[in-house]
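Question (not urgent): is this output format expected?
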Amino acid sequence: MQTLQHLVFPTNGPPGVLPLYVVPGNSEPTVESAYEATLVAGSHVSFGSYFNAFPASVWRQHTAVDTVTLALTLTGSGEITLYGSDASGRATELASSSWQNSVRTAAAHLSLDVALEGFNSGGWCWFELQPISTCTVSGSWVVDQDPLRTGNVTLGITTVNKPDFCIRTLQTLCASPTTRAVVDTVCVIDQGTDRVADQEPYKELAEAFGPQLRIINQENLGGSGGFARAASEALLSPRSNGVLFLDDDVRIEADSIFRAHRFASYCHEPTIVGGHMLDLRHPTVLHSWSEIVDEANFMWGPAVPEAERHDLAGGGLTQESWLHHSSRTDYNGWWMCLIPTDVLDKAGLPAPFFIKWDDAEYGLRAISHDVATVTMPGVALWHVSWLDKNDSVDWQAYFHARNRLITALLHAERPRGGFLLRDTGRLHLKLLLSMEYYAVSIRNRALVDVLNGPGTLHRSLSQALPSLRAAADGYVESTSRPTGRPPREVDADDGVTQAGPSGLTLARFTLRAVARQLLRPVPRRATRKPQQTLKHTEAHWSVLPWHDSVLVESRDGTTVRWLRRDRRAFVSLWVQSLVLHRRIARRWPRLRQLYRQEFPEMTSPSVWRGTFAAGDESPSASQSASE
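Got this back:
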């Protein structure tokens, strides 16, 4: 029998994650280990949970598996009921049984089969236990079929100055022999100055992993440069059948790696397999169920809007029908994503984007090569939410703008990316009205670089970031200052985009706001001192245009930025934005052809290896942990 996923319990995740593993009735189980728990007599515990239910429809749709078996080891005595759901979330009892051990420490082995032909359009399988006496439970979902593909996965962790996170991830992996058994090599692509290998716990980890752990030091080529390095290493290993990307600022449920690998090994065709993102600060909150790129304005977003920022603790499998649907997926976020080496051979390595849109571009590129992408239920990690970051107005705004446009030139089916240019033009005006002049200046620079063509993308991997940071010196709003206050607690929904005016109301708002910018002088006192302090939730784009000089707090209240109105900057940056947008619109067909011609070579392993060679810090940049 081949194991597809283990029954797991929380040992390495953040606090408060038990609802992701079990749905306790009148008593919570006692977690004995990552794979075993104790249930008290008279309790009623459901395993219809995110991590322990079996995503039957996904296996039915993408693999040749036709029957799956729930295999449990149980002490004590009690009753078990097996359930299955349909695409609407309606549950049906599939089977029931009981177990009884005359000796308290004796174990019963119980198996229940589930035929998957009824799960074509959606649904899960799960079980519930009612112990008559105190019992322990462990088990897995297994299948009596061999996988279609053999080989292990190369695990690629790209990091820049987050050694504590990386050490904790390595410790989690090291403590999970079942996960390590499907991993060829753990490659840590260290692009920072605070090295993972210099941390105190690393020596012990290196000894435990031996040659299975490698540290590759290279200059900072961004997320795409780090993940491309991991993918290149996977292609060079005869034992790897794929590469699994992991972000650095995460906490991982180790069995997720095992599940992603097993699922990919059973798929009819080589398939990209991704995991869900759970919010590290609010660990039962799911970022989104699957990701798509909207052709109308060529912007990423959730395929299931009601799934965005959903708290699974308050709405799990038995409460939310959309959790049982099959949904479209265009790409997987590279916080966790497995790409088979067959796909790398066919579609190439990541785009040389540094950060932003590299994952979406690769997913769309895979679609053009008839490669499916699946975001796998029950495969997830906890990630620092980007709601805690300021990446839409800091130096990352450049990459947001440039890489979205390039991805559209490569993959958009509608002329000029549909409403893309209108959307980015409006965004520039919104930022200018909000006194975010640095963000617009580097977004305008991004448009210039798109017009200049793809030839400098690889070279810019090491050059763009220092230049963007240097450009921030002339903008007061680009600097954050500490408030001296301790971090405040924030709600899971604090920071989610608020709705502003729309329709005719938006048109009137824009006219009034622009007129104020152009006609009303900036009071001299506003240039010397902020007039007001706004909380993060108050600093909305529909509020900021009516201020001349404000301090805006960060989400947790520990820092502030000074936004100060500048009429000259507003006019010059807006005119530049309008001119550049018009140039791109006019040259779109020519740019589209140019980028599509040159990108296959730019994403080839040979070109990437040249970039790595130029940026390696020394001939010994790639080292085994055992050396």
